[in-house]
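Good morning,

Attaching, inline, the backbone tokens for the sequence recovery test we're adding to the shared suite. The designed sequence is right after.
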């Protein structure tokens, strides 16, 4: 007989039903995969798309047959949502517009998606005494305090001026005309609402702040499985450039810094939250890898090297090109300068640590990108254009 799954305190974990909203996206697809392969839990997968989880839904002979059901619905306007939340033990909300190219060009959709559309989810969980794990973002921190210091100030090297801590760091956004911050601001307000529901009405919640989770199935490759003019997040932008043998575009010099974490490491943290409610509830967790910090320029250089290795193709002569943010994203773009997560709270509550180095995660991700897209790109490039 298989040994029972136990939580971090040695208690047996009983199978639960999870309503996962946004299950068809990048993070949702990996979380569904993990839950099906390694746990006895059932998932009610809610999304408007299911392409990224199709391999989990069909055929009927899959070992987890019956433990995952797809519900195609738009949470903006579907009365079935409350019923799905009511018949679940836990709701995980991943649904959002979360691509920077949309924040300044579609600020209304961004605010509606990240705040207004999340309101009924919070309300149904609170009214029905259901637990909620809500996905926020590291972007709620905005810019670091250090970014306002003079360029040559020695204080810029002091972690007190740049490490982002859930319970003490302020949230610093640009002016209202910089519509980039519409996303961060909407996410911050929904965090505050969830926190207040916890404080005033006893909602059992956990808030997750992802710090640049990357890996296979992230976003889309323009012109192949997404719009030709679409601008995805940096991993997919650079992958697209590498696949097409075009220079990688560095926005405003590629000086911004990010810490990247492998999706599979991050999903381990989410599973711990799901299965350890007593340790996770009432907390906001940074989930990132502080050891994987690079500038965007360094990311471009590393991706170029890794892609050469996995594809066997030599890099092009000028692998990067500079573009202004106005040219690339349009009016109203602004940027987060640096994002290093403090790991104290997640370490203390869940004993979790990320494992995968940036080189290793890029190697497995770009191997996937090459295997999945190289042939389709070749055919798209070879296709004669219509007159
Ligand atoms: P994603 O775009 O791949 O997934 C979001 C999913 O939500 C999509 O499949 C989309 O179809 C679905 N969705 C959106 N609106 C919906 C609606 N009205 N009804 C039904 N489904 C809807 O994004 P992701 O990277 O998987 O991100 C998931 C969550 O994590 C988001 O809330 C995002 O803000 C947050 N996040 C992710 C990262 C990251 O590094 N990937 C970083 C910060 C925050
Ligand atoms: N970026 C870039 N070239 C691209 C796409 C993005 O230089 O082709 C930069 C972008 O300006 C930002 C960083 O890469 O500084 C990360 O962008 P991403 O879209 O992944 O999201 P963010 O981390 O800003 O939320």
């Amino acid at each position: 007989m298989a040994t029972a799954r136990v939580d971090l305190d040695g208690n047996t974990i009983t199978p639960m039903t999870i309503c996962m909203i946004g299950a068809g996206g990048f993070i949702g697809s990996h979380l569904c995969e993990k839950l099906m392969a390694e746990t006895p839990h059932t998932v009610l997968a809610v999304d408007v798309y299911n392409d990224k989880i199709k391999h989990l839904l069909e055929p009927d002979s899959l070992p987890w047959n019956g433990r995952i059901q797809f519900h195609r619905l738009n949470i903006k306007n579907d009365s079935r949502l409350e019923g799905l939340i009511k018949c679940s033990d836990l709701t995980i909300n991943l649904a959002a517009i979360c691509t920077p190219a949309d924040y300044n060009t579609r600020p209304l959709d961004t605010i509606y998606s990240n705040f207004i559309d999340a309101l009924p989810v919070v309300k149904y969980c609170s009214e029905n005494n259901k637990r909620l794990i809500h996905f926020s973002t590291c972007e709620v921190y905005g810019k670091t305090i250090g970014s306002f210091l003079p360029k040559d100030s020695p204080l810029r090297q002091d972690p007190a001026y740049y490490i982002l801590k859930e319970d003490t760091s302020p949230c610093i956004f640009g002016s209202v005309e910089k519509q980039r911050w519409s996303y961060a601001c909407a996410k911050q307000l929904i965090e505050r609402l969830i926190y207040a529901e916890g404080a005033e009405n006893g909602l059992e919640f956990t808030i997750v702040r992802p710090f640049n989770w990357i890996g296979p199935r992230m976003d889309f490759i323009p012109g192949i499985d997404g719009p030709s003019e679409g601008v995805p997040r940096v991993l997919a932008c650079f992958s697209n450039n590498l696949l097409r043998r075009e220079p990688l575009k560095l926005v405003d010099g590629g000086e911004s810094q990010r810490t990247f974490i492998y999706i599979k490491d991050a999903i381990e943290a989410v599973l711990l939250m799901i299965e350890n409610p007593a340790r996770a509830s009432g907390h906001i967790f940074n989930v990132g890898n502080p050891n994987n910090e690079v500038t965007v320029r360094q990311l471009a250089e590393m991706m170029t090297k890794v892609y050469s290795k996995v594809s066997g193709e030599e890099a092009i002569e000028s692998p990067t090109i500079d573009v202004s943010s106005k040219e690339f994203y349009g009016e109203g773009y602004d940027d987060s300068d640096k994002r290093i997560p403090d790991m104290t709270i997640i370490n203390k509550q869940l004993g979790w640590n990320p494992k995968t180095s940036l080189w290793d995660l890029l190697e497995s991700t770009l191997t996937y990108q090459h295997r999945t897209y190289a042939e389709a790109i070749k055919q798209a490039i070879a296709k004669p254009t219509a007159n």
